[in-house]
Design brief:
single chain, 320 residues, 0% strand
Length: 320
């Protein structure tokens, strides 16, 4: 009964805060529905990482059971483990690779190409963050090439392969940018343009938009040390058309990093303010706090910077 009351309370607080129906997570034994996973995904998309962290242990317990309940249950479990990996990355914690590995196992059991793609992306991110980029292509290929007969055009997630290839470029010899990074980005843009002619395709992930391609283009070309092209993607991007607060904050973060590389510290700070405006907890992530510290080191005289650093570097995190 204690499990039941905690679960209902946690989800009611979290899902209710970002809109949408509150799922029925009230079973005495751990149970996992598609609505449960969707509610958790809404928390992540809204940048409500504290609330997601509060309900995540219950989700993970339910995922263990769900993974054994056929392809549909495995798909739901994979969704939870993908979210757990993404949240760990956001919070700078260890363990995202372990979650991603479990997501991959469940995704392969599900046989769903979209779930496979999400798991491949979750696997690639911690490898990239820890510099183990040479290990990235294998899980990415598993996600991009599902079993025969189940390979819709919308499987590839924009930019995931390109970002990994770009990181590998940084750890290798100087020379022309590698073809894979640009090829993956070009394929994503081509797919997005093709799908734009069929706006109501059933089951298409919300990530497949022109705006998402521009967002990933910023990071890909920055990691390829092609700052001019990265800034061109940033200028073309319309953040207001990105579907979630988390994506808008990510766009501002990547643009801030690129502007800082270009020597525009004031512009980088403007983008950091947009990060906080989109999703306050994003501004308190370890990697973004490090970016703020760098801006403060370079331009401590910037108007508004003192208050911003006090909120994001000094003040304790506020619930969300």
């Amino acid at each position: 009964m204690k499990r039941r009351s905690v679960l209902v309370a946690g989800v009611a607080l979290g899902a209710g805060a970002v809109g949408g129906p509150v799922p029925a997570w009230a079973a005495a034994e751990p149970g996992l529905s598609a609505g449960d996973v969707a509610a958790a995904r809404r928390l992540f998309a809204a940048g409500a990482y504290t609330r997601l962290g509060e309900v995540l242990p219950l989700l993970l317990a339910a995922a263990e059971h769900s993974a054994e309940q056929g392809p549909a249950g495995a798909a739901r479990a994979a969704g939870v483990w993908v979210l757990a990996s993404q949240l760990a990355v956001k919070q700078g914690r260890t363990g995202p690779a372990a979650y991603a590995e479990r997501a991959g196992t469940a995704a392969r059991r599900s046989g769903d190409p979209v779930v496979l793609a999400a798991a491949a992306r979750a696997a690639a991110t911690p490898l990239r963050r820890t510099g183990r980029t040479d290990e990235g292509p294998a899980p990415a290929r598993r996600g991009a090439h599902p079993p025969a007969g189940r390979r819709p055009a919308h499987v590839r997630r924009p930019g995931s392969g390109g970002t990994g290839s770009a990181h590998r470029r940084l750890h290798r010899r100087p020379g022309p940018p590698p073809a894979p990074a640009r090829d993956f980005a070009a394929q994503a843009e081509e797919t997005t343009l093709r799908l734009a002619r069929h706006p109501h395709t059933h089951g298409r992930p919300w990530e497949l938009t022109a705006g998402q391609c521009d967002l990933y283009g910023i990071g890909i070309h920055r990691h390829l040390c092609d700052i001019d092209t990265a800034l061109a993607h940033a200028r073309r991007l319309r953040p207001d058309r990105l579907p979630t607060a988390e994506r808008r904050a990510r766009a501002a973060t990547d643009t801030a990093r690129t502007l800082l590389d270009a020597g525009d510290t004031a512009g980088a700070f403007t983008q950091l303010r947009l990060v906080e405006l989109a999703a306050p907890l994003e501004a308190r992530r370890p990697s973004v706090r490090a970016l703020t510290s760098r801006v403060a080191e370079l331009r401590p005289d910037l108007p508004g910077l003192r208050d911003y650093t006090h909120r994001t570097l000094v003040s304790p995190r506020r619930p969300a």
